Amino acid sequence: MTLIALNKPFGTMSQFSEHPTRPTLAACVDVPGVYPAGRLDADSEGLLLLTDDGALQARIADPRHKLEKTYLAQVEGIPDAAALARLRAGVDLGDFVTQPARARAIGEPEWLWPRDPPVRYRAAIPTSWLELKIREGKNRQVRRMTAAVGFPTLRLVRVGIGPLDLRTLGLAPGESREIEPGVLGLPAARAPATHVSKTRQANDIKRRSRYKS
């Protein structure tokens, strides 16, 4: 079983198959048989897990296992207390209501690598940073959440999945490293139950009784 942590660069598709206009994971990871566990949009950056084990892939992506994802979002404007309260309570996005998130305003992360290309600068509109922790993974969910409360996301970086964090992994964009699957703390996959017929059970009991006599 292989588990790989990758710092996916901005603009890279979360797939290995060739894309007509964008780079793919094949430019970053040269390990046969691994696939992304979960999604990360092309215009988002950061931590992406890959594995060659289908059961592990499903457990990582399954919201029942509550692997919290941590995002840093550079947003347009400066969110007030009311906007943060809405993110924490759950946001109605029309097609679904998000689960409550952990959200807080943070300073600009000094450790974060510069984006290529950089976010467009507009002197008349200030930007700020949020840290968001969610347990869901709907399509473009964080971007939709911040836009719904009035502060569109300009840059989005996933820095954590469960206990794994890019700040401690030390991965630059495009870099990857193999991880021990046990660090995720996920329950082991259950072996499929074996059905034993009543006839077979009765025969086993007779066999055991003959051995005892």
From TrEMBL:
Keywords per UniProt: Isomerase, Lyase
Residue span, Pseudouridine synthase RsuA/RluA-like domain: 3-148
Residue ranges of the region described as Disordered: 190-213
Residue runs in coiled coils: none
InterPro entries: PsdUridine_s_RsuA/RluB/E/F_cat (IPR042092), PsdUridine_synth_cat_dom_sf (IPR020103), PsdUridine_synth_RsuA/RluA (IPR006145), PsdUridine_synth_RsuA/RluB/E/F (IPR000748), PsdUridine_synth_RsuA/RluB_CS (IPR018496), RsuA_PseudoU_synthase (IPR050343), TruA/RsuA/RluB/E/F_N (IPR020094)
EC number: 5.4.99.-
Biological processes per GO annotation: pseudouridine synthesis; rRNA processing
PROSITE patterns the record matches: PSI_RSU (PS01149)
GO MF: catalytic activity, acting on RNA; lyase activity; pseudouridine synthase activity; RNA binding
Database matches in Pfam families: PseudoU_synth_2
EC top class named in words: isomerase
Protein family: Belongs to the pseudouridine synthase RsuA family.
Matches recorded under PANTHER family: PSEUDOURIDINE SYNTHASE FAMILY PROTEIN-RELATED, RNA-BINDING S4 DOMAIN-CONTAINING PROTEIN
NCBIfam families: pseudouridine synthase
Protein name (record): Pseudouridine synthase
Native organism: Cupriavidus oxalaticus
Taxonomic lineage from the root: Bacteria, Pseudomonadati, Pseudomonadota, Betaproteobacteria, Burkholderiales
